[in-house]
Write a structure and sequence with these properties.
Elements (H helix, E strand, L loop, with lengths): L2 H9 L1 E3 L5 E3 L6 H8 L16 H18 L3 E7 L17 E14 L2 E10 L8 H16 L5 E5 L4 H9 L3 E5 L7 E5 L2
Parallel strand pairs: 5-6
Antiparallel strand pairs: 1-2, 2-3, 3-4, 4-5, 6-8, 7-8
Helix pairs in contact: 2-3
């Protein structure tokens, strides 16, 4: 087994000491995605992106599932212990245990100005925010990136007003490069290997 294959196998399911679970998403996660992405406060800087219904969330998941099928890694379903959010949507997988769906996060391939990069994404339900989930996702993404795409830069793309997302990335060592070339409203932070 190659290093990349081992990394991909490991990326399927990661559990932290605090009981946070990062796992490959499934179609059955649509209700959990909607619980997080259907809340307008989650899209404070992009209100038009708020999911109107669970069917929208199911369509939103499709390219993520396809990326996993093709590349063996991608954005994770992020679950937290149910005791941290008793009203949350229970995990869709029998192995999720007593966890609820908190949001999505991880890395996937992206092309920017003709160059392959890995885009880091993290978005969580308001009740799950402030627990260090974004930090966990960024740290695990940076650990996985050189194994699945050696030498490939990792980027965070966010709205300039999203100081929290920028702060998480900067604390992890990302460099703020200003506005993404060709955009007027997308901040680009980059981690170079």
């Amino acid at each position: 087994m190659t290093t990349a294959e081992a990394a991909r196998r490991h990326a399927l399911r990661i559990t932290t000491d605090a009981g946070v679970l990062l796992r490959r998403p499934r179609e059955a996660d649509a209700a959990g995605v909607f619980a997080a992405h259907g809340d307008p406060s989650v899209y404070r800087y992009d209100p038009q992106e708020t999911h109107p219904d669970v069917e929208h969330s199911a369509r939103f998941l499709e390219p993520m599932l396809e990326h996993w099928a093709e590349h063996g890694f991608g954005y994770w379903a992020v679950l937290i212990p149910a005791s941290d959010w008793p009203e949350g949507v229970p995990g869709a997988d029998v192995d999720d245990g007593a966890r609820v769906f908190a949001g999505l996060g991880g890395i996937r391939n992206h092309t920017m100005a003709g160059q392959r990069v890995l885009n880091v994404y993290y978005r969580f339900a308001p009740a799950a925010q402030g627990r260090g989930l974004a930090r966990i996702v960024v740290e695990r993404s940076l650990a996985l990136a050189p194994l699945v795409a050696p030498g490939t830069d990792v980027v965070v793309r966010t709205r300039p007003a999203n100081a929290v997302a920028r702060h998480v990335a900067e604390r992890a060592g990302f460099i703020d490069e200003g506005l993404e070339p060709g955009t007027t409203d997308m901040q680009l932070l980059r981690y170079r290997f």
